[in-house]
Amino acid sequence: MSGYPMTSTAEQVDRLAAWEDREAVLHKVVPYVGLGVGALLTTAAPAPVGLSLVPDLLVAAAAACWIAWFVNLHPEWVTRRALMAVYYVGLLAFGAVLVLDSPWYGFFAWAGFVHAVLLPGNWRFAGVAASAVLAGTAQGGGVPSSLSHGVLWLVLVAFNLGVAGAVTWFSTINDRQHANRKRLVEELAEANRRLAETMRENEGLHAQLLAQAREAGVTDERQRMAREIHDTLAQGLTGIITQLEAAGQARDRRSDWQRHVDNAIALARESLTEARRSVRAVRPEALESVRLPDAIAELTRRWSTINEVRAEVSVTGDARPLHPEVEVTLLRAAQEALTNVGRHAKASRVGLTLSYMEDVVTLDVRDDGVGFDVTGRPAVPGSDGGYGLTAMRQRVAGVGGELAVESEPGGGTAVSASVPALSGGAC
Hints:
One of its GO terms (cellular component) is cytoplasm. Among the domains are: 9-143, no CATH class; 291-427, 2-Layer Sandwich (Heat Shock Protein 90), CATH 3.30.565. Helix content is 66%, strand content 9%. The chain has helices at 9-44, 53-72, 81-101, 106-115, 123-139, 147-249, 254-279, 292-307, 324-345, 387-398, and strands spanning 310-316, 349-356, 360-367, 402-407, 413-420.
């Protein structure tokens, strides 16, 4: 970083404005100072020839009024070039009368150099030349009256013209640079203003995006909790109710009654554990210590025991660790498919196939149950209105997969979940 202080655009604008104000004060003060000095010296040491003191002072006062009218009272006229040319010609005329009357008014002749900037383009150099003639005449003591006096006059005029012309030249270049700086600063100020407006708009947009992100996060979390509740509490309670109903029907058969009660207790404990893990967003306990094929096989075995339906699990391809979210999705899909079979299908046989392919892993669940019309409402009374399949679709779609359901009344049901074969370290 540079060691020089950095100024803001506003400060640069203020500095340029202050410089313009100082120049304006200089233009307004110099003519009056020159007139005052000339009048004072003329009064103290009048010229041998020329007007008497009173007319001389009246001409000086008229010159002051001329300047005040055009410069002080109407500063906005400075941009009207034609009007400023008229003013400058009058300024030169007053200067010529006063210089010819008294050389002391050579101090006033310098006002022509200062106000030459009011002329357009190269006309200011013509004004400087005319002012140099007046200044040289005053410095030479009046109009040349001899050859030697004429030579002195020419030297004085050339000197004034050279110095004032050089100063005017550099002043013109400086004015152009000043105008360019002013234009650039104004453009920069406008760009900063637009940038500030854009930043304010971006702040509003950022706040809106944050609000939308929060809403989306709340919605996603609600959907996640709905799926978890369905996959844990809802299914667990359904299984408990089924086992308790079966126990009620087997009151006369002690062994069957005890088996159903034990199954209900086991389901209650499993459901409570899974519900707690779901709240903490922890992957299912079944996947904590075993691989996915083993977890699905154990899930199927327990389901087959409870529902007294024959179920088989087969694995094809090279079984390998997958991303935790992918494994949870496939396990929950198997759980939901088996739950639907137990509740609605009235099947005698279920087959699950877990297929590991190069880029895709597929879980197929088939049963020989009553089936249903996939285009209409669930045909089984007391169903969940299809939310189980909806939750399954959301889970599968959440990891970039697809869910397909094939069924027809009397023809059984086939559910297929295909998900990307993301490795265990994938994000």
